[in-house]
Amino acid sequence: DGNGTLAGQPGMSLSSDGWAAIVLNRVELDAMSPNESGQVHIQVQAPDRYPGSLFFDVLVWSSAAPEDVSTVSQSVSITPRTGGLLSMDSNGCEGDTQPGESCHVSLRVENTGDVTSSFLLTAVGAEGAGWLSVEVSQDMITLGPGQSMSGVEVSCTISEDTSADLTALVGVQIWLGDWSPDAVQFGVTVDERYEWLLERISSDLSNDNNLTSQWTLTNAGNEPDGLVVNLDVNMVTDFGLQPPPGSSTSTASGNPRSFEVMDVEPGDSVVFSAWMVVPSEAPVETTAVLTVEVRSIRDPDIVFTDRDTASVPATSVPAAEQGGGA
Length: 326
What we know:
The protein is mainly β and 326 residues long. It is 2% helix and 55% strand. It has one helix at 319-323, and strands spanning 13-16, 19-25, 41-45, 53-62, 65-77, 84-91, 96-97, 102-111, 117-125, 132-136, 140-143, 148-158, 167-176, 179-190, 196-202, 210-219, 225-233, 239-242, 248-249, 258-264, 269-277, 286-296, 303-312.
């Protein structure tokens, strides 16, 4: 055995401490001519453990001269098996991820070998996906035979201003030296983000009683979007919008009260103005109100509403009329 102790008597097979050896084929040794050679096949089965070794002798003799024995010594050692499995416990990247945000995948590493092994974990995004950064929470894991570790997290972060609907594969591998026994892949997709930045400039009432509101909205999202603009006033007077080129209006007249503009690319702006003629007087002193509402087409929850106002004085009454005299 491995300690050099005789473990049994000579025979066609032997077994000791989980080891087994047997002569499978010796037919070529039967009826051999002088100077003829033959082969013998011997099979050795090792126990399911590491380490371990077996030493044994192979004895050969002729039936014509049994006292003349030839001996060959053999040794067998168990070579350790190394291996590992990598699997996903949970995949938080199955849905779309917003630019500037991260999704996370939880992994499990298992040592399927016979010896303690240190596994290196690597994770990388697909070539050309410069908008994606990938990090592993723990890049080196040491496990004994049969041991496993869960909760190894891979974080995938999407850069700001990344276009919508881009997809990249992320590959994660475990390594034992220069050999990778297992790997997993998952995809990361950029979600659509709708956002508008507003710059509004209101003017004072002009000399010709024209109240004007200037609007500039910039698409700060990562996907083309459109706008619906509506105008309302609280008095009977002339009012309207000056829509940007390419927009569609609700009326063929020169004073549209609403318009739509479609497919505004990220980073592009929509510029328009709203105006109303403020009456010079009213039966009683009041306030003229110009109200503009702007709503995103792709995300109707994005709404901008603002008002411009101007005072309208009461109608002057002649002094004679006030006194009621003839």
